[in-house]
Write a structure and sequence with these properties.
The protein is of the alpha+beta class. The protein has 16 helices and twelve strands. It folds into two domains: 186 residues, Alpha-Beta Plaits; 172 residues, Ribosomal Protein S5, domain 2, CATH 3.30.230.10. The strands form two sheets. Strands 1, 2, 3, 4, 5, 6, 7 and 12 form an eight-stranded mixed beta sheet that branches. The protein has a four-stranded antiparallel beta sheet with strand order 9-10-8-11. The longest helix has 27 residues. The N terminus is likely disordered. Bound molecules: alpha-D-galactopyranose (GLA). Alpha-D-galactopyranose binds next to α10.
C-alpha cells in the first residue's frame, strides 16, 4: 500500500513542489544509509542508541477505543448529493463557538454536541489529535534532520459519521461556513497549484486535503471497504490556539485522519497518517512544511518528548523529566500571527536547498559541523548562515537528547538559548516579541528559553522552576507592556498523549 506521499500521476510528478515533497517524506532504508559513508551526525545519532524504533509506530489511530457503529448512517435531511465545486461553500446557520461553553466541556464533547445540532443525529465516533510544542530542532525536519517535539494537552476533535451519499461535509466551531465536496470532486480540487490559494476555505482545505491524500494513498489497491465509497459529516472543535506556533494545523489534520481512517476502514498506521497529514498541508493547503508536527501529533505520549529522525521517520520517546527536575514548560504566545504558506518559511526552505546543492549534499542533514568552514568559503553570507543554523541545530537536538538522559531537564537551558540565538541571528525567523519573551524570561530566572515552531510570530517556550512561574509570567508581561507590545498569552504545557479515538 502506498503511503500517500508519492505523486500518483504525471501531473503531480511534473510539479517540482510535489517532487520535492515526495523526496522529503520518503523514508530511506537505514540499512542502506549504514553501509554508505555515514556522515558524522549519523554516527552521533547512532551513538545515542535511538534507532530503529519499534515502540512508537503506534496502532492505527483510534484502534484503542471502543468500536462504535461504523455503518449506521441514517437518512440525513440536508444531505442531497453535491456536485458543485466546493469553493461555492454553503453557509450554515451555526454560530462559531471558539471557547468551550463551560469548564467540563472539552473539544471532544463540544464537537459531538455541535455534530448533533448540525446533523440531528449521533456521531459514530469522536477522534482527537493534539497540538505540539517543539522543545528543540527548528526547520531541521524538511532538511532530513532531527527534531524533539512533544504533544500538548490542547486538542482538536472531530465528531463524524458516514453518510448515505458521497458528500464530505465539514463544519467547525472556527468558521460559520460548512464546506461540502463530493468524493468525486477531490481530484479536481487538489493539489492546489503553487502560488494560489486553495479552492475551498483554507480551514476546510486541511480536512478535505486529508481525505484527498488518504484516498490517493489507498485507492491504488482498490476500495478497501464498502464504507470507502461513502461520504461523511465531520464536525471539528478545537482548543489549540491558531497561529500560535503550536500546530493547530497538524491537530486538525490528525483528527480528520483518525476519523476517516476508522470510518472508511482504511487501516493505516499512525506514521502513514502523519505523512498523509503532511501531504494535505503541502499540496492541498500549499504550506511547504516538514513532517514534524504531524508526527508529534500522531505519536506523542504523556510525559515524553519524541525524538524523530525526519529522514527515516524513526521515532523514539525521550522522557522530558521536567516535573522530576521541579520544572515546568511555559508557553508565551506573542499573539503575532504567522502563516507558513507564505513568504519567509518558503524562502528559508529554498535557501536550505540551495545550500545543500552547493555543498553537494543530498540534504543539510548530511552536512556536519566540521564542514562549516568549507561551507563558509563556498556560500554567500546569507545562505551560509541559513546552513549554519540547520547544521548546528541538528547537533543541538542530539545534544539535548543526550543531556536529558544523562543530566535531566535542568541541564538543557544553554542548548535552548543557543537554539534561539541561532534562529534570531542566522536563520532570522525571530521577531522582537519573541526575543523580548526569551530575554525577559531569562532575566527573571528561567532555566532556558527559545522561540518554538516556524517563527515570524507565534510562541516562545521557557523552562521555569515551578515556584517561579508567577514571577517569570509577571516579568514577561511587564517587558511586553514596556515595549508597547500586545499583552502575550502565557500558560504552562506538559507532554500529553498523541492522536486517539475518544468515543
Ligand atoms: C512549522 C512546520 C514544521 C517545521 C517547523 C519549524 O511548524 O509545520 O514542519 O518545519 O515549522 O521547525
Amino acid at each position: 500500500m502506498s503511503d500517500g506521499s508519492e505523486p500518483r500521476d504525471a501531473t503531480a510528478a511534473a510539479d517540482p513542489r510535489a517532487a520535492r515533497v515526495s523526496d522529503d517524506s520518503e523514508p530511506r532504508d537505514s540499512a542502506v544509509a549504514a553501509e554508505a559513508n555515514i556522515p558524522g551526525i549519523d554516527r552521533a545519532r547512532d551513538d545515542l542508541g535511538l534507532r530503529p524504533s519499534t515502540t512508537t509506530n503506534g496502532p492505527p489511530a483510534g484502534a484503542s477505543a471502543t468500536d462504535t457503529d461504523r455503518t449506521s448512517g441514517v437518512a440525513i435531511g440536508s444531505a442531497e448529493p453535491e456536485t458543485r465545486r466546493s469553493r461555492r461553500s454553503r453557509s450554515a446557520s451555526l454560530t462559531p463557538n471558539p471557547t468551550h461553553e463551560d469548564d467540563t466541556m472539552t473539544a471532544s464533547t463540544e464537537a459531538a454536541d455541535l455534530f448533533r445540532r448540525a446533523t440531528g443525529r449521533e456521531p459514530a465516533g469522536v477522534w482527537s489529535a493534539p497540538g505540539r510544542v517543539n522543545l528543540i530542532g527548528e526547520h531541521t525536519d524538511y532538511n532530513d534532520g532531527f527534531v524533539l517535539p512533544f504533544a500538548i494537552s490542547q486538542r482538536t476533535a472531530a465528531a463524524a459519521a458516514l453518510r448515505d451519499d458521497r458528500v464530505i461535509r465539514v463544519t467547525s466551531t472556527f468558521s460559520d461556513e460548512a464546506v461540502e465536496a463530493s468524493i468525486d470532486e477531490l481530484e479536481s480540487l487538489f493539489p492546489t497549484p503553487e502560488g494560489t490559494t486553495p479552492a475551498v476555505a483554507e480551514w476546510a482545505a486541511y480536512p478535505l486535503g486529508v481525505a484527498w491524500a488518504l484516498r490517493q494513498a489507498v485507492a491504488a489497491d482498490g476500495a478497501p471497504s464498502e464504507a470507502f465509497e461513502r461520504g461523511l459529516d465531520i464536525v471539528f472543535a478545537s482548543d489549540v490556539p491558531v497561529g500560535a506556533g503550536l500546530s493547530s494545523s497538524a491537530a486538525l489534520e490528525g483528527a480528520a485522519a483518525g476519523a476517516l481512517n476508522d470510518l472508511w476502514s482504511t487501516g493505516l498506521d499512525a506514521k502513514q497518517l502523519a505523512r498523509i497529514g503532511r501531504r494535505a498541508e503541502n499540496e492541498a493547503v500549499g504550506a511547504p512544511t516538514g513532517v514534524m508536527d504531524q508526527m508529534a501529533s500522531m505519536l506523542g505520549a504523556d510525559d515524553n518528548a519524541l525524538f524523530i529522525d525526519c529522514r527515516t521517520l524513526d521515532a523514539n520517546l525521550v522522557p522530558l523529566g521536567a516535573a522530576e527536575a521541579g520544572l515546568e514548560v511555559l508557553v508565551i504566545d506573542t499573539l503575532v500571527k504567522h502563516a507558513h504558506s507564505t513568504g519567509g518559511y518558503r524562502d528559508r526552505r529554498d535557501a536550505c536547498e540551495r545550500g545543500a546543492a552547493a555543498l553537494g549534499a543530498e540534504a543539510l542533514r548530511d552536512v556536519a559541523v566540521d564542514d562549516l568552514a568549507r561551507a563558509a568559503e563556498l556560500l554567500d553570507d546569507v545562505t551560509f548562515r541559513r546552513v549554519r543554523h540547520i547544521v548546528t541545530e541538528n547537533q543541538r537536538v542530539l545534544d539535548t537528547v543526550r543531556t536529558l538522559r544523562e543530566h535531566g531537564a535542568r541541564a538543557i537551558g544553554e542548548l535552548l538559548l543557543s537554539s534561539h540565538a541561532s534562529m534570531r541571528d542566522d536563520f532570522e525567523i525571530s521577531v522582537p516579541e519573541l526575543d523580548t519573551a526569551v530575554e525577559a524570561a531569562m532575566a527573571a530566572g528561567a532555566v532556558g528559553a527559545r522561540m518554538t515552531g516556524g517563527g515570524f510570530g507565534g510562541a516562545a517556550i521557557a523552562l521555569v522552576d515551578a515556584a517561579a512561574i508567577a514571577r517569570v509570567t509577571t516579568a514577561v508581561e511587564r517587558a511586553f507592556a514596556e515595549a508597547g507590545f500586545t499583552a502575550p498569552r502565557i500558560f504552562t504545557v506538559a507532554p500529553a498523549a498523541g492522536a486517539h479515538r475518544d468515543a
